[in-house]
């Protein structure tokens, strides 16, 4: 049976601070708070969790993925920006033009995100987290469409986007040029299998689609860059070399 998107995970030098920021900004309730990090629960059963996992590595360079938050009106966009700043976010310059309507911010750990202007038709109906916007190739967009069995909702000029058949947040890839990876990503996807699924069969399916095993070829711990652990997650790389994990059935 196919994996489902279980969580979008952040490596964080201060998981509790980062969870507090995103909980306040998104209005999501936190759960947990153990050595394995802190989780923000989805607003409904079909949504994904957001997990903040401890890491001793400070952020260097721009992330290869970020959230795009939506706005229903100019006033709501201003309120979201003001709330983010109040919670500890800050304005940043990533080369955006003055005439562009979105606002680029960073959370307290330096992770970039955008507050999109009202009237953006591409993100209409997606919810507050409109997209997880990624640097990535067309190939990796095709991979994730097959891996999650989410249909392509955009495929043009080597830019791709997928969305769950149930709607909600889109995952997008901007096509070339793709920024080179300089180490493990700070954001990564965590997949989960139904309780009666065969883990090894699913791993082989993902590999047949273009995933590869890591050099360690072992379960991923709290830090997927570490290449090992015993918490029931298997670490793989997508066709662009981005880490993702698959949770064993529970």
Automatic annotation (TrEMBL):
Region feature Disordered, mapped onto this chain: 214-250
Lineage, highest ranks first: Bacteria, Bacillati, Actinomycetota, Actinomycetes, Kitasatosporales
PANTHER family: CONSERVED PROTEIN, HYPOTHETICAL FUSION PROTEIN
SUPFAM superfamilies referenced in this protein's UniProt entry, alphabetically: Glyoxalase/Bleomycin resistance protein/Dihydroxybiphenyl dioxygenase (SSF54593)
Pfam families: Glyoxalase_6
Compositional bias annotation for Low complexity: 214-223
InterPro entries listed in its UniProt record: Glyas_Bleomycin-R_OHBP_Dase, Glyoxalase_6, VOC_core
Protein name as it appears in the record: VOC family protein
Domain VOC: 125-249
């Amino acid at each position: 049976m196919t994996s489902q998107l279980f969580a979008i995970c952040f490596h964080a030098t201060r998981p509790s601070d980062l969870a507090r920021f995103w909980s306040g900004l998104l209005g999501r309730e936190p759960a947990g708070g153990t050595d394995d990090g802190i989780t923000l629960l989805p607003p409904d059963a079909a949504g994904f969790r957001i997990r903040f996992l401890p890491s001793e590595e400070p952020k260097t360079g721009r992330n290869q993925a970020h959230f795009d938050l939506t706005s229903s009106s100019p006033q709501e966009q201003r309120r979201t920006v003001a709330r983010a700043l109040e919670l500890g976010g800050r304005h940043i310059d990533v080369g955006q033009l003055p005439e562009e309507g979105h606002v680029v911010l960073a959370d307290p750990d330096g992770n970039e995100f955008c507050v999109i202007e009202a009237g953006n038709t591409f993100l209409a109906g997606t919810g507050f987290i409109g997209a997880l916007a990624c640097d990535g190739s067309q190939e990796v967009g095709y991979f994730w469409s097959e891996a999650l069995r989410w249909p392509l909702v955009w495929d043009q000029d080597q830019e791709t986007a997928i969305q769950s058949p149930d709607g909600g947040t889109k995952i997008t890839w901007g096509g070339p040029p793709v920024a080179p990876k300089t180490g493990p990503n700070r954001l990564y996807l965590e997949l989960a299998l139904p309780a009666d699924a065969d883990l090894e069969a699913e791993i082989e399916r993902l590999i047949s689609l273009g995933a590869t095993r890591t050099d360690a070829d072992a379960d991923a711990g709290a830090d997927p860059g570490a290449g090992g652990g015993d918490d029931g997650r298997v670490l793989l790389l997508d066709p662009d070399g981005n880490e993702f994990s698959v949770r064993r059935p529970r």
